[in-house]
Specification:
257 residues; mainly alpha; 0% strand; globular
Length: 257
């Protein structure tokens, strides 16, 4: 094992979050964790107070929404140990597979039903907090991988990467909300998944609905992400017009790694 690799492993053990580098904000992560905890606390309170299981599905949806965050954090903390494109590709695959689950929480608003068990303002607060937790997770993790693509490939590939991600997210939301598929169906029922993905584009009646949902949700998330990203602190944002040397130095301060 090289001395550089031993040094990287030692640093990872000492301070795992330090390896995340630029584009990873611990304060934002703590705020996101607080929002997720807040949403879960609201749901627990509702179930305890009403002695019902209304909206309990939000627990599972919140869990799925945070899987992309886990994948992105694993990559951020290990990218110095495995800087090659293979590890990035593996993490991107699993991140993108579960990524639509994060903004998908917005579509759970359709389940909002004003039960008479609590004041009418409580359930909208519950759903909106969960939706924001999912959307913020999507933005937070996408920014990390967008920056990685920017450093490796440059300005336009990074922009195309963001556009493709949000387009696939629109497709993922259609498959989850309308076709009722899950991310893990890729491993459990790959043949059925491929058939269900292709079916809306082969049936003229379903194609219009599928395309409309993809375009509307994909463009909404894309525009929201552009606005969110424009409000970030300058020190956390790369200069999109000058991507290479400076940002590599920021993200990989140890020249031996």
């Amino acid at each position: 094992m090289s001395s550089a690799r031993r040094k990287a492993i030692k640093q990872l053990r000492k301070d795992p979050l330090k390896n995340a580098g630029a584009g990873f904000d611990l304060k934002e992560l703590l705020a996101l964790t607080a929002l997720l905890t807040y949403s879960c606390a609201l749901l627990v309170f509702r179930m305890k107070y009403t002695q019902t299981v209304h909206y309990s599905f939000l627990f599972w949806n919140l869990f799925l929404a945070e899987i992309p965050l886990l994948v992105s954090l694993v990559y951020a903390m290990t990218r110095k140990l495995m800087p090659g494109p293979l590890w990035l590709s593996i993490c991107l695959f699993f991140w993108l597979l579960f990524f639509p689950n994060s903004p998908y929480l917005i579509t759970d608003l359709q389940h909002l039903n004003f039960y008479q068990e609590l004041p009418k303002w409580f359930d909208p607060l519950l759903f909106v907090s969960a939706a924001l937790a999912g959307l913020w997770t999507a933005f937070f993790t996408l920014r990390l991988f967008e920056r990685e693509i920017l450093m490796r490939l440059g300005h336009w590939p990074a922009r195309w990467f963001v556009a493709i991600v949000w387009s696939l997210t629109g497709l993922g939301i259609y498959l989850g909300r309308v076709v009722r598929l899950n991310s893990w169906d890729l491993f459990k029922r790959p043949a059925k998944l491929l058939h269900d993905v292709a079916a809306p584009f082969l049936d003229p009646g379903s194609f219009v609905q599928a395309l409309g949902l993809m375009l509307l949700y994909g463009s909404f998330f894309w525009l929201s992400y552009i606005f969110w990203r424009s409000r970030q602190q300058p020190e956390h944002l790369p200069d999109l017009k000058k991507p290479n040397v400076q940002h590599q130095a920021e993200s990989f301060p140890d020249k031996n790694l």
